[in-house]
Structure formats: structure tokens, C-alpha cells
Design brief:
Blueprint: H1 2-9, E1 29-33, E2 36-39, H2 40-50, H3 59-82, H4 89-111, H5 118-131, E3 136-145, H6 148-159, H7 164-171, E4 182-187, H8 193-200, E5 212-214, E6 217-228, H9 234-261, H10 268-281
Antiparallel strand pairs: 1-2, 3-4, 3-6, 5-6
Helix pairs in contact: 1-9, 2-3, 5-9
Length: 295
């Protein structure tokens, strides 16, 4: 399940921490610069953005460093306002983007991040477990040798009735040798291909009659038992589940907002590109609401 969840998450999870949006409830004034006030809420917002720059400082100095940087920002912002730089199209666009992004984060923090309950995650866990296809695992031992001739000699010993575990302790050059070559249980994709192919072809109690070559040397492999891989515990995948649920909530919120507002790609080149992408995704059928007017 861990691998299945990781594959889902690799599509790109939206990660927005609730703590990134400072509470406006605390309006205590910490400092002033000219007629402008610096409040506790502003300092918290600045700490979320600037704090990592001062991580090496002691905590009491770090808070002052962030406040000092915030005052510097406000000082030059005041000069920029006097110079009417906010009227510059590029600056105005950046200001609009910063405002939109802050509101975007605040909305999702309140309506998405804060609304993921333990019960919801457990329900999703049960759903994912039920949908999992069984995955086979094998419990194997191996004897690793430097040459094919040595490995073939070991096969002859085993054919003569020698105990696999005992021979592994005596002759295996691998790190598992002292443990009788025991590798424990492993699933597909955890061993090098040649070793894995040979191991999964064996039944419990069987060993390879022909040595298997890998970059580590020559192996004689014995399978002790097989099983269906146990499902991971809830706590092992809880964080992955949370991100999966958050991504779905985010996509649902964005989809609903886009549908209600309507999206119109005014630029002809952009519209043509969007149409082409949607046809590719939908197998020739444009996605609803994305061909120019999303109403």
C-alpha cells in the first residue's frame, strides 16, 4: 500500500500548512515606524516567511531579527508608496498575486487542512486496504560465493544432503552468512532482477540447482516459505493518506470554484494550447468548462 500511495502522491500533492496564515486576532502593537504599526499578527506572518533565515540564532535573538527585517521592509515599502511604485504594472501584478496567494492559502487552511479528521483518514485507510491486490513475498536464504565453480560445488553438497543453513554459515561471503544466509521476507522490486527472478520461481523447500550470477557474485538460493505481504499499519501511512485526502479536497474545491466563476481563455494561443491538452487528456473530447468558457 505504501508504494501505491506514493504513486498517487507523485502526481503532485498540494501541501499548505495551516500555520502559514497568521491569525489576525492578536493586534498587539510591538513597534511603530512613522505612522505605521507593527502588530503581533504581522510579526507571526513575517516569522513564517523569514524565520528560516535566522534559524542559527538563539530564539530570543531570532524574534528580534525577524522584527528588524520586517521594519526594514516597511521602511522601504513606505518610500515605494511615496514614489507611487504601486502604479507600475509589474509591481501591481506582483501585489495582486501576493494577495491572491495569501487568500488562497488561508481558504484552504480553514476549509481543507483543518477539516481532515482522524476518522476520515481511518476510513480512507480501510478503503485503500480493501482495494489492494495481494502481493507475494518470499522468505529466502542464500549462499554467496566468488566464482561459479565454488557455487556449483555448494549445489553438489546440498544435493548430497548438506544442510543449507550450515553451509551458508561456513562458506557464504555475504553479510548474511553468519545468520545462515537468512534474508527474511522480501517482495518484488527489493532485490536485483536476476536474484528476484530465481527466488520467486522457487517453491518452499526448493533451492536453485544452477547458481545465479549478479554483480555481487554467484548465489545459491533457497526459499523457506511464501506469503501474501501484510498490509502496512495505519500509523505507517497516516501522513501519506493525509496528503492524498488533502489533494483530493483541494482539487474538488478548485474545480467547484472554477465552475462557479467560469474560466475564459482570452488569448487565442493559450486557448488553442488548452484545447489541445484537454483533447489529449480526454481522448479527443474537450474537458467540461475548458474550451473557452467554463459556465
Amino acid at each position: 500500500m505504501v508504494r501505491q500511495l506514493a504513486a498517487l502522491l507523485s502526481a503532485g500533492v498540494i501541501m499548505i500548512a495551516a500555520g502559514q496564515v497568521a491569525s489576525a486576532a492578536d493586534a498587539d502593537v510591538i513597534a511603530t515606524i512613522g505612522k505605521d504599526k507593527v502588530t503581533e499578527a504581522e510579526l507571526k506572518a513575517a516569522e513564517a516567511e523569514l524565520g528560516p533565515q535566522f534559524q542559527s540564532m538563539p530564539e530570543e535573538r531570532r524574534r528580534f531579527a525577524v522584527l528588524s527585517a520586517l521594519i526594514d521592509i516597511k521602511a522601504l515599502a513606505a518610500e515605494a508608496a511615496k514614489a507611487k511604485l504601486g502604479d507600475d504594472p509589474a509591481v501591481a501584478a506582483q501585489l495582486q498575486f501576493d494577495r491572491d496567494r495569501t487568500l488562497h492559502n488561508a481558504y484552504f487552511a480553514k476549509n481543507g487542512v483543518a477539516n481532515v479528521s482522524e476518522d476520515e483518514l481511518k476510513a480512507r485507510y480501510e478503503k485503500e486496504i480493501a482495494a489492494m491486490a495481494p502481493r507475494k513475498e518470499v522468505h529466502a536464504r542464500h549462499i554467496l560465493l566468488k566464482t561459479k565453480e565454488e557455487a556449483e560445488a555448494v549445489v553438489k553438497e546440498l544435493e548430497g544432503g548438506a544442510d543449507f543453513e550450515t553451509v551458508a554459515k561456513e562458506k557464504s561471503t555475504g553479510p548474511s552468512g553468519p545468520d545462515g544466509g537468512d534474508l527474511g521476507f522480501f517482495g518484488q522490486g527489493q532485490m536485483v532482477p536476476a536474484f528476484e527472478k530465481a527466488a520467486f520461481a522457487l517453491k518452499p523447500g526448493e533451492y536453485t540447482k544452477e547458481p545465479v550470477e549478479t554483480q555481487f557474485g554467484w548465489h545459491v538460493i533457497e526459499v523457506e516459505e511464501t506469503r501474501d505481504a501484510p498490509a502496512p499499519e495505519f500509523d505507517q501511512v497516516k501522513d501519506q493518506l493525509r496528503q492524498l485526502v488533502l489533494r483530493e479536497k483541494y482539487m474538488a474545491m478548485v474545480g467547484k470554484a472554477r465552475q462557479e466563476l467560469g474560466v475564459d481563455y482570452v488569448d487565442p494561443k493559450m486557448k488553442a494550447q488548452v484545447d489541445a491538452i484537454e483533447k489529449e487528456i480526454e481522448g479527443g473530447e474537450p474537458a467540461a468548462g475548458g474550451t473557452g468558457s467554463a459556465n
